[in-house]
Write a structure and sequence with these properties.
Distance between the termini: 52 Å
Strand content: over 45%
Shape: globular
Number of strands: 7
Radius of gyration: 22 Å
Order of helices and strands: HHEEEEEEE
Helix content: 10-25%
């Protein structure tokens, strides 16, 4: 009887643990942040991007001179001519020299 009780208790605990959602602190911080790419003559476009650190492709050919973030993440962007721009939190950063951005990655704080 003692063996049965222990086995039943272990089976119950195992089922409760496996049924519980596996939410980590990192997963709880996941959201989409808004990034605005600003070019000359008031040209601009905005993307909603993931904040999980994954690399995303940027397909808009606008020559970008500034990048602005709505905040909550650190983002980095690569330009077609080799620029590398980092935006931390809610700020606007110059891209030098202005160029088309081809990829980016953001990670939530």
């Amino acid at each position: 009887m003692k063996t049965f009780t222990i086995t039943a208790a272990l089976a119950l605990l195992t089922s409760l643990v496996s049924a519980a959602p596996a939410t980590t602190q990192h997963e709880a911080r996941q959201f989409q942040t808004q990034i605005t790419f600003i070019g000359a003559a008031d040209g601009a476009f905005t993307l909603s991007v993931p904040t999980d650190g994954s690399l995303f492709t940027i397909t808009n050919p606008l020559s970008v001179s500034m990048i602005s973030s709505s905040g909550g993440a650190t983002c980095s962007f690569s330009g077609i001519d080799g620029s590398f721009t980092v935006v931390v939190g809610a700020q606007t950063v110059d891209v030098g020299p202005p160029q088309t951005q081809i990829s980016g990655s953001c990670r939530a704080f």
